[in-house]
Amino acid sequence: MGLTPEQVLILEQMIDANTLADVLDSLAEIAHAKAQHIEENWQDVSLSRVWDNAGKRIESCAISSPVSTVSRR
């Protein structure tokens, strides 16, 4: 199960309007926010760590992305 073609188009438009690094940074922020929410509201430390680690990996991709500084169109 993945994104629908329409969702892929929206994601591509977001990248085109910003940069890949900007979109990845936003995804990392979402992952960290999910981690915090899960830990605070569900006390599920294991799942919280999964989301936090995902955020860290996404951040790493954003930093090392070769197209992170490509100009906006």
Query: How do the SSEs run, as a string of H and E?
Result: HHH
- Give the helix level as a range of percent: over 70%
> Mean of the pLDDT scores?
92
Oligomeric state: single chain
First and last CA, distance: 31 Å
- Bin the strand percentage: under 5%
Radius of gyration: 14 Å
Low-confidence stretches: none
What structural class do helix, strand and pairing data support? mainly alpha
Can you tell me the number of structural domains?
1
Strand count, sense and barrel status of the largest sheet are: none
The number of helical elements comes to: 3
- The dominant shape is globular
Number of strands: 0
Strand-helix topology:
Blueprint: H1 5-17, H2 20-42, H3 45-64
Helix pairs in contact: 2-3
Please outline what is shown here:
This protein is mainly alpha-helical and 73 residues long. Helices cover 77% and strands 0% of the residues.
